[in-house]
């Protein structure tokens, strides 16, 4: 599968990844400008942006880019003084594992957009879907009684704009799923009545926003939609509202017992298990040296 097709597939499943592109390469190196790869949260590298030594540096930088959601221009240099054109703003790593050459790789994190689930077939629900899409949110429409906590696991916000119907069930499901933003389009009196029926704790009640949206004096469906989206944006940018993504295993770090290099472990990282203890290596060469030393002891 081509890198572009794989990226589209990951985006559809809301799986975070990093798109890596080699922008400069200095010989001797096995990578060339234009080489591409996708890096996943568990350290998997799909594609090619350099050999095993370079991969460790790229993997570590890519995981950092996923955490910060900021692009990185990574310069991977061997140990020693190497003349390589300057790149302002680049992150430089010296990789003693490299036997020569140098790489410059652009790492672009692809984080899923906030997912807003909208319940209801009303003018406000329709306007809300339009405004959400306008600001780049992903939208899913559903009936008020069609969701379960499991189906809401990757949801940033749930907004119920059905003006009646089984609203309480979706509020309960959203709270049980840990959704960070739960909004109910209702008057203050009706909203309080629905929450009273649910028998929520004080902490749960504080998580439900009703009336929903920032108090901007909104009257029309479009204005109400703008106030709701503005409140969601405020919660994300200022309130630390999380944007959940598809769960995935995460890579970890280990120390190469031969060269002492810190290795970011991925599925293809050289590994050796002796007496039930796992040892990880930057390259198969270090693994071979470890085996030889262990056999000779």
Automatic annotation (TrEMBL):
InterPro entries on file: MoCofactor_Util/Proc (IPR052698), XdhC_CoxI (IPR003777), XdhC_Rossmann_dom (IPR027051)
Domain XdhC Rossmann: 118-232
Domain XdhC- CoxI span(s) in chain numbering: 11-75
Protein's name in the database: XdhC family protein
Record organism: Nocardia amamiensis
Pfam families reported in the protein's UniProt record: XdhC_C, XdhC_CoxI
Residues forming coiled coils: none
